[in-house]
Design a protein that fits this description.
Number of strands of chain B: 0
Helix content of chain A: 25-40%
Number of helices of chain A: 10
Radius of gyration of chain B: 21 Å
Structural class of chain B: mainly alpha
Helix content of chain B: over 70%
Shape of chain B: globular
Number of domains of chain B: 1
Order of helices and strands of chain A: EEEHEEHEHHHEHEHEEHEHEEHE
Largest sheet of chain A: 6 strands, mixed
Strand content of chain B: under 5%
Order of helices and strands of chain B: HHHHHHHHHHHH
Strand order of the largest sheet of chain A: 6-7-8-3-9-10
Distance between the termini of chain A: 38 Å
Structural class of chain A: alpha/beta
Number of helices of chain B: 12
Radius of gyration of chain A: 22 Å
Strand content of chain A: 25-35%
Largest sheet of chain B: none
Shape of chain A: globular
Oligomer: heterodimer
Number of strands of chain A: 14
């Protein structure tokens, strides 16, 4: 259990977090959502014991200020911009991290394979691209097989393929008693990875909702343009309308008004009606 | 999944891991090599020039060699210690690597002690290189009889280096910008090596400072305390310093050595303790 109670953080007297309270149960995945400057990263840094703050942060019933070392043994942390010792190679970095966690170095080989960094093991970290550094950050976080994963924009530097691979990996790591706390700007990612979204604005919790509700609450809608054979258009439109979607004809296909997290569901409805989708576009 | 178990706040294994990494980082740092090579090279050259041949020059040749070495240590060792120390915390904070380090199950005390010991080991290696080159030349020229005095100067240099490293880390603990830390460290170096001495002399002239106060003002400066402590190794007396030296010898006698070494050790303990306190209790990472 993670319990944050009345968390307030000021920088030079200016509050960046004000009386933030939240609880995360074992096995739960939670997204911290909000614009830049909302305070998401500051909450993460307080959970790690990096910052001084007012209020309480407890992890497994232990105060992060008094038991920071013990608590960090339970946390795998991926920062938004991972910083490593640039002169160390990828393998040396993992070896150093394994030593500090009193872990067998064989585990380092496992996580290298898990994040697909094996071919870069001999490279100095300073020579890695932003995406590779982020994957190394994930490898370091997974070294100790921790019960808590704290991920600050974990895919922000990744290209589309690496992002998808990372999201898939995190999906696999979810579940059981593991807690996943992720800050992200990607609605699709949040929809796939978390059970609950805590919305922050200007250092205050302004809303909590299920990820499916987030797009609507934020007023975010997408248009799904599905290209079909002309004969299939009426069948697809009827099936979508029957499932509650607002769909209408558009050129060679149908245009469906969807919440960002419902795009896959709309595709399923069309496929379920026996219609072959020729192409797909998302308009925002 | 691995659930944490309680661990002591300071574990030797963790400290050694961090110290080893700091030592390796220092050895890979080009500035460190520049200092080490300059120190070793100058120590060798000065010893060669000051010790043409002890067989010819007699006992006083070692004194000339040692006083050159002490003058070199007074300049270079504080500079090395202060700049390395200043980069330790502020540099890591500026680059963000302190957060990487502290994301592991380690305490701030372990991080601090590990960094200090790793850098101290690097400094010791550089000093050993300097004294090694001077020592080889001294032995080759027949000065081996003074090995005890030579070792004493080397040990005092290590203590001075440990003190200056601590002062550097103290500077570093109060800023998160490496440029500010390095600049401040250079000012401290100037203050201790040049301005401190001039300041004491100037104040003494302007205010008619009593000789006792003059002596204590001088030895409060660790660089000066080092110089006086080493002077007794090859001069045997501080009378060469004039009234302040005579006062010191008359007032403290055989306890003078202990006093000077205590001052140096205090300069190790006090700055390191304040820097540790600041880093562990007062600083956001």
């Amino acid at each position: 259990m993670i319990r944050v109670q009345d968390l307030t953080k000021r920088y030079s007297g200016t509050p960046v977090l004000r009386d933030v309270s939240l609880e995360i149960a074992p096995g739960e995945s939670v997204a911290l959502w909000g614009p830049n400057g909302a305070g998401k990263t500051t909450i993460v840094l307080c959970m790690l014991g990096f910052l001084h703050f007012d209020g309480d942060v407890e992890v497994f019933g232990k105060d992060v200020r008094r038991c920071g070392k013990e608590i960090r043994a339970s946390i795998g942390y991926v920062p938004q911009q991972p910083s490593f010792y640039d002169d160390l190679t990828v393998a040396e970095t993992l070896g150093f991290s394994a030593d500090l966690r009193s872990i067998e170095t064989a585990r380092a080989e496992e996580v290298l394979a898990l994040v697909d960094l094996e071919e870069h093991r001999g490279k100095p970290v300073g020579a890695l691209s932003g995406g590779l550094r982020q994957r190394l950050g994930l490898a370091v976080a997974l070294l100790g097989d921790p019960p808590i994963l704290l991920l600050d924009e974990p895919t922000s530097n990744l290209d589309a393929a690496a992002r998808q691979a990372t999201v898939n990996l995190l999906e696999e790591l979810r579940g059981g008693d593991r807690m996943l706390i992720v800050t992200s700007h990607h609605l699709e990612e949040v929809s796939m990875l978390v059970d609950r979204v805590v919305v922050l604005d200007d250092g205050v919790v302004v809303d909590e909702c299920a990820p499916a509700e987030l797009g609507e609450r934020l007023g975010l809608r997408s248009w799904l343009h599905v290209l079909l054979d002309p004969d299939d258009v009426p069948v697809a439109t009827s099936a979508l309308t029957a499932s509650g979607f607002n769909a209408h004809l558009n050129g060679r296909g149908v245009l469906v008004d969807v919440a960002p997290e419902d795009k896959a569901k709309a595709v399923e409805v069309i496929s379920g009606a026996g219609v072959t989708i020729r192409d797909l576009e998302v308009w925002r | 999944m691995t659930v944490a178990v309680a661990r002591p706040q300071i574990e030797a294994g963790t400290v050694v891991t961090i110290a080893r990494k700091e030592l390796r980082d220092s050895v890979r740092n080009k500035w460190f090599w520049l200092y080490a090579i300059a120190f070793a090279g100058l120590a060798g050259v000065l010893t060669t020039l000051a010790l043409p041949s002890a067989r010819v020059a007699g006992y006083g040749a070692f004194g000339r060699s040692a006083s050159s070495l002490v003058a070199l240590v007074q300049l270079i060792v504080p500079l090395m210690g202060l700049t390395l120390g200043a980069q330790a915390l502020a540099g890591q904070q500026e680059r963000g690597t302190i957060r990487f380090l502290m994301s592991h199950p380690i305490s701030r005390s372990e991080a601090f002690i590990g960094m200090y010991l790793g850098l101290a080991a690097a400094l010791s290696a550089a000093i050993a290189a300097g004294f090694g080159s001077a020592g080889v030349i001294t032995v080759m020229r027949g000065g081996a009889a003074d090995a005890g005095s030579f070792a004493r100067i080397a040990i005092l240099s290590w203590i001075l280096a440990a003190a200056m490293l601590g002062v550097g880390m103290l500077v570093s603990a109060f800023t998160s910008r490496s440029g500010v830390a390095s600049g401040s460290a250079l000012f401290v170096w100037l203050g201790l090596v040049f301005l401190g001495d001039l300041g004491v002399m100037g104040t003494a002239l302007a205010t008619d400072l009593p000789v006792g106060a003059l002596f204590f003002s001088a030895v409060a400066n660790p660089v000066e305390a080092f110089r006086l402590a080493t002077l007794t190794s090859f001069e045997g007396s501080l009378d060469v310093l004039g009234p302040a030296g005579t006062y010191a010898v008359d007032s403290f006698g055989s306890a003078l050595d202990a006093l000077l070494i205590s001052v140096l050790i205090l300069w190790v303990i006090v700055p390191v303790t304040i820097a540790w306190y600041r880093f562990t209790r007062g600083k956001d990472l």
